[in-house]
Specification:
The complex is a heterodimer of chains A (361) and B (100).
Chain A: E1 12-16, E2 20-21, E3 33-34, H1 47-58, E4 64-68, H2 78-87, E5 91-96, H3 103-110, E6 114-120, H4 126-133, H5 138-150, E7 155-162, H6 170-180, E8 184-189, H7 196-201, H8 208-225, E9 230-233, H9 242-247, E10 258-261, E11 266-268, E12 280-283, H10 289-295, H11 297-305, H12 312-316, H13 320-323, H14 328-335, H15 343-350
Parallel strand pairs in A: 1-4, 1-10, 2-3, 4-5, 5-6, 6-7, 7-8, 8-9
Antiparallel strand pairs in A: 10-11, 11-12
Chain B: E1 10-13, E2 18-22, E3 25-29, E4 36-39, H1 41-49, E5 54-55, H2 56-64, H3 72-88, E6 92-94
Antiparallel strand pairs in B: 1-5, 1-6, 2-3, 3-4
Helix pairs in contact in B: 2-3
The chains are: A alpha/beta (361), B alpha+beta (100).
């Protein structure tokens, strides 16, 4: 590893354990194959390759692994992997739809180093949630899984994917989170990637003006009403109020310190390699993760160019040094250029509502 | 290394910094380093006192006039910490001590 590369620690691996899912969510940017039977599968990359990669990556800074998918609990060896991560002092975060959780699994999670489990819930009613997730019966299973988790010491979070069809359920979901004693509610506007592209084509996404209004409403009213839970609304910090930037914890993508490993072992920037194969940088079966991290041209280019070479409004934004252009995966997915503007900031700029005070010139 | 400020140190704004005021505060930004600092209304007042070169004791006294209910020692300590941060982030420049 060169001296310069040592500045960039690989802090977190996003591990996409399967490319299957037992739900068929209309907004999913990863586009996993539908696994109707919801039976355990174990035909993806061998767990021993994952374990070796974890050990190797510890030497370049790894301290956290996020287990996601597809639906990660479709893999029957997930608990074995979590045990391994715990033994190696790796913090584990999990993203799941919650439908496959049961008492036995949750107890094992609670006995391990799992820090947080985030459960996807897009509507406060069975009808709305299942109209988005496209599988009958999933709403109650998700609530059951979430309920089991809240009885443990594991941090819990509800993740809501927001579009025009479920905007009225934000407060109801905050209410569910508060009543169930879930730690936080994270609201992600849908992305124009994977299946989400179709929602944008059908104009089911929210405009930037609507998103900013929701952000301020959450900050000024909803967060105060439900002060027992943390509510995060994921829009770029350049569009947040100064008060929220200074006083709240914001979710930010540390793209220079993470890497994704897909279900087949491919190494990618987060999960984007699933649909944008140009961003696959190797495979853990044949490539050394440390070598890829230090020497792959895509990562070297990102380190050299982010944020200096960002173009469009992101290039002009003062906050680019912190935000690094928000989601580079979606920028690439939309334009084929890792340096192009983030679509929400671009839309704000074109609509004349990007704050002038935040532009360099 | 932590900068130690003396009362008779003179401070002035770094002209290369960008200062932007918004409804609920302001922020300072250094385009060279990317340093960014958010400041509240009191911080804005203190920063603006440094438009012209001014001593630390002058700044402290001027601010303390508006906060008579806070012990002077406390104000002095808080302001010095704030000024030290701004110097370290290169938003303020320390000029030569008048005794040097």
């Amino acid at each position: 590893m060169t001296e310069k590369n040592q500045e960039y620690l690989l802090n977190t691996i996003y591990l996409y354990l399967t490319d299957s899912c037992n739900l068929r969510c209309s907004h999913c940017w990863i586009t996993p194959a539908y696994n109707r039977a919801a039976k355990n599968i174990n035909k993806k990359i061998d767990i021993n390759y994952l374990k070796k990669t974890i050990i190797d990556a510890k030497s370049i800074g790894l301290n956290c692994v996020k287990l996601t998918g597809g639906e990660p609990f479709l893999r029957k060896d997930i608990l074995d992997l979590i045990d391994f991560l715990s033994l190696n002092d790796i913090i584990v975060d999990i993203e799941t739809n919650g439908t496959l959780l049961n008492e036995e699994i949750v107890k094992k999670l609670n006995d391990s180093s799992v820090n947080q489990v985030s459960v996807s819930l897009d509507g406060a009613s069975e009808k709305l949630h299942e109209s988005i997730r496209k599988v009958a019966g999933c709403y109650q299973k998700t609530l059951n899984g979430l309920s089991l988790l809240t009885e443990t010491s594991i941090k819990t979070q509800i993740i809501m994917s927001l579009y025009s069809g479920n905007i009225s359920d934000i407060e109801r979901l905050a209410d569910i989170a508060a009543r169930m004693e879930v730690g936080s509610l994270k609201i992600n506007p849908i992305m124009p990637a994977g299946r989400g592209k179709d929602l944008f084509t059908n104009e089911k996404n929210l405009s930037i003006e609507e998103l900013i209004n929701i952000d301020r409403w959450i900050e000024e009213e909803l967060s105060l009403k439900y002060d027992e839970i943390d509510i995060y609304f994921d829009i770029p910090i350049g569009l947040k109020s100064l008060k929220s930037i200074t006083s709240s914890q914001l979710y930010e993508c540390n793209i220079l310190n993470i890497i994704g490993i897909l279900a087949n072992g491919n190494i990618s920037l987060c999960g984007i390699g699933q649909t944008e194969t140009d961003l696959v940088m190797g495979n853990i079966i044949s490539d050394d993760i440390c070598n890829v991290w230090s020497n792959h041209h895509i990562l070297k280019r990102l380190r050299k160019e982010l944020p200096k070479k960002l173009i469009g409004i992101c290039g002009q934004c003062i906050f680019k040094f912190r935000c690094l252009g928000a989601c580079r995966a979606s920028a690439y997915s939309l334009t084929g250029n890792l340096n192009s503007s983030f679509f929400l900031c671009d839309e704000a700029h074109k609509s004349g509502i990007f704050p002038e005070s935040r532009m360099i010139n | 290394m932590k900068i130690i400020l003396k009362n008779n140190d003179y401070l002035t704004q770094n002209p290369e910094s960008i200062f932007r005021k918004e409804e609920d505060g302001a922020f300072l930004f250094d385009p060279k380093s990317g340093n960014l600092k958010y400041i509240n209304c009191m911080g804005v007042n203190i920063y603006q006192l440094c438009i012209d070169s001014r001593s630390v004791i002058d700044i402290t006294s001027l601010v303390a006039e508006n906060y008579r209910d806070i012990p002077e020692k406390q104000i002095e300590e808080d302001i010095k910490n704030f000024l030290q941060d701004l110097i370290e982030m290169k938003f303020l420049k320390k000029e030569r001590n008048i005794d040097d």
